[in-house]
Amino acid sequence: MSITVRDIMELNLLRDSEIISGKNGLDREVTRVNFTDCPIQFNDLEYTLALKGDLYIRSLYWVKDDEKELYDTFYFYVTSGSSCCLVTNEYLPELPKHILELTDKHNYPVIKIDSNVPYGDLIRDISELLMTEQSELFFENKLNRLLYETLSTSEILEIGKYINPLFKKEYITICLNLPGLDNRQFYSLQSDLKVQYQLRLRRYQNGGFIIFNYQERAEFDAAIPGLRKLFHYYCNTYSSGISGAFENAADFQQSIRQACSSLRIGIMLKQQWTYPDDLHIYNLLMAVHDNAALKNFYTMTLAPLIQYEKRYSVDLIKTIETYLTCDGDYKKTAILLKQHENTIRFRINKAKSLLGMENSHYKFIEQVSLALKARSVEKFSVNRPPNGL
Fold first, then answer.
1. How far apart are CA 20 and CA 112, in angstroms?
2. Which of 8, 263, 315, 374 could form a disulfide with 298 if both were Cys (CB 3.0 to 4.6 A apart)?
3. Per-residue pLDDT at 387
4. Are residues 119 and 191 in the same domain?
5. Among candidate residues 144, 142, 200, the one with its CA nearest the CA of residue 173
6. What is the chain's percent helix, strand, coil content, to nearest 5?
7. pLDDT at 386
8. Side-chain half-sphere CA neighbours of 72 within 13 A
9. Domain membership flag for residue 12
10. What three-state secondary structure class fits 21?
11. Partners of 201 in beta bridges
12. Pairwise CA distance, residues 34 & 50, whole Å
């Protein structure tokens, strides 16, 4: 996820800054800080030295009395692909109207900052943001190797020590999906995890990874309620996949992959916390989800139920899914669906009748459960992006 002008505006040093033009360009990518207060030579060399995404910091002292050169300066910024310009209010409190029109037309943000803002601190803070983003890209490349490549033990250990320098007695990997979380919120979550739990959240795709090292399993179990609340506070649509507990650093690749598998199942089932015990049958189904025989099985099994639903407008399949989730408890199912218990009994018996399984309770549970899981896997696999979690 790249750093944008909008992210830069979240820095404490820019809290009192003002966007004076180009407000529609806040999603421009920032790639480098370029501080200059000397006149620009508008030639091919100058354009060669400028990079797309450059963020300029200027006092405009050298061009404050020359309106043409001032205009040419901003024209250069716009045409060279610069991300934005931070202008101090010391020498030029207001920019001419035609310059504001130029930058607005091209959605080029011009941001007025107080002259008392230390240049050095501002350059440092912006550079740290950019370096963090580069570090995250490097981390993502390491993760991709663990997820998608066949690695030797020495390679796994090397990457493992880079990602998790301190292996304790045991460790568990948590893989997170945090849809809609912007950079500012992500960094705040990182900070809270570090302060409250001494955990490091590393960004990956639309979420990230946490490696939980501990001496006793009770440490992990005690942290779970607080982590649930924290994740929900920042993103109430989050999903998390948990790996099993591992002792050996050489098993780090397995831990990462297991957490990702848990997450994929959790997203499919719309669960916020998924453990490896939930994986086995789903992993098997995912491996054969494009098998014609499997698709034919769940299509034929569910067809009578779907036809009944359409004809009588009854949520028969949802009732069965809830019934299975409640381990066959009619009362719990009725409470969850806000229906009378007898209504639930009638629907389950009707489903058995439609499938010709009135006297085969175990067969009904087995076949319908498998058919519903297979259908869920098929839908999820079709909608899942390539290499996406």
1. 7
2. 374
3. 44
4. no
5. 200
6. 55, 15, 30
7. 42
8. 13
9. yes
10. strand
11. 210
12. 9
Beta strands in the chain (DSSP E): 18-21, 32-35, 54-58, 84-88, 110-113, 170-177, 201-204, 207-214, 239-242
Q: How does strand 32-35 pair with strand 54-58? A: parallel
Exposure pattern of 229-242 as b/e (b: 16+ CB <10 Å)? ebbeebbeebbbbb
* Domain residue limits at 306: 288-383
CB contact set of 388 (below 8 Å; sequence gap of 6+)? 205
Residue 284 · residue 262 · CB < 8 Å: no
Two structure tokens written together for 3: 């750093």
b/e burial code for range 166-178 (CB count within 10 A of at least 16 → b): ebeebbbbbbbbb
Burial of 316 (0-12, 13-18, 19+ CB in 10 A): buried
Determine the Cα–Cα distance for residues 115 and 288; give it in Å rounded to an integer. Answer: 64
The rounded distance, in Å, linking the Cα atoms of 13 and 114 is: 9
Q: What is the pLDDT of residues 330-385, one digit of tens each?
A: 999 999 999 999 999 999 999 999 999 998 998 999 889 888 888 877 776 655 54
Residue 306 in 3-state DSSP?
Answer: helix
Rounded-to-integer distance, Cα 70 and Cα 76, Å: 10
Q: Looking at the structure, tell me whether residues 225 and 337 fall in a common domain.
A: no
Alpha-carbon distance of 172 to 163, in angstroms, equals 13
DSSP state for residue 278 in the 8-state scheme: G
Residue carrying structure tokens 């007898």: 342
**What is the separation of C-alpha 322 from the centre of its chain, rounded to a whole number of angstroms?**
29
For residues 146 and 256, the answer to whether their CB atoms sit within 8 Å is: yes
For the chain, give the mean pLDDT: 87
